[in-house]
Amino acid sequence: MNTLTSFSAVAAPERARIVVLATGGTIAGSAATPTETSAYQAGALGIDTLLTAVPALDEVARIEAQQVASLDSKDMSPAFWTILAQRVNELLADDAIDGVVITHGTDTLEETAYLLHLTVKSRKPVVLTAAMRPASALSADGPLNLLNAVTLAANPAAVGQGVLVALNNQIHSAREAAKTSTYAVDAFQSPEFGILGWVQDGRVEFGRSVVRAHTTATEFVIGAAWPHVEIVTSYAGVSRALVDGLVAAGVRGIVVAGTGNGSIHASLQQALVDALKQGVAVVRSSRVGSGHVMRNGAALDDALGFVSAGSLNPYKARVLLMLALAAGGTGPVMLQRVFDQY
Predict the structure, then answer these.
(1) Which of 91, 201, 219, 319 is deepest in the core (most CB within 10 A)?
(2) Structure pTM?
């Protein structure tokens, strides 16, 4: 007698639910011809058009899309950062949502990503992606970047890694990613520490994890007014006029893009010392593009009350200083703790 064996069907795992927030940028750009990659209108195309170009997305995740803005990211502002961070936190507070992908322009992506890295209050994946060529280009890089970003956001390995940047098959930490080319598809690098991992053909692999505190482990919240913080650069023959003007305008903090190890021209240094006496926070960073600024590397910090930005470039240092001042940080000792921690 034949015996029939009954097997219980095992349900396939449900695809992750990912929300794609579109903010504009080159990834949504359109030019007059397919061969034009420099003269185009950023943010010209809506999110539905971007999604239609990547039908494989439906195989990776359940996608919901929202058009938050249609900006050229060179025009990014702290006011919009507030809107975006609040929206991301609202979405991730929903138990039914597994992650968020943000399409963004490349020009200020590194600043927005680091801002979110410090203010998102969830361990769920948040992934920013972009493109160096407009969507209308013959060899547009946006569709594959978007597919990889959704693949990364839907992968359990991305949980707890902070805000990530997915471009050119590479995974970067928001703290470390920086735009390093005006035209190349591989424009983004993580100069000091290298990439976190890679995503390709549906596979995600991390080679390392982020060590510094981020997201749920930070003291920063979105909602307070943004303190006025500016960046000045040290170079041959620089005068003190810009610093004096900023102090007169009521600036709360100044980040210096110094030469080498954050060194500062004598005339600019004296202006910054005078600014400190007026209650202005001063942070030393470097214009070099890689490496780190050692505290007291220029024999300045302890003696004068400056703060070292460590490995943060001037633009990310500005983001952190604004958040620290908004959270009530005052004085070089407290601010140095913040820069050492984040």
Answers:
(1) 319
(2) 0.94
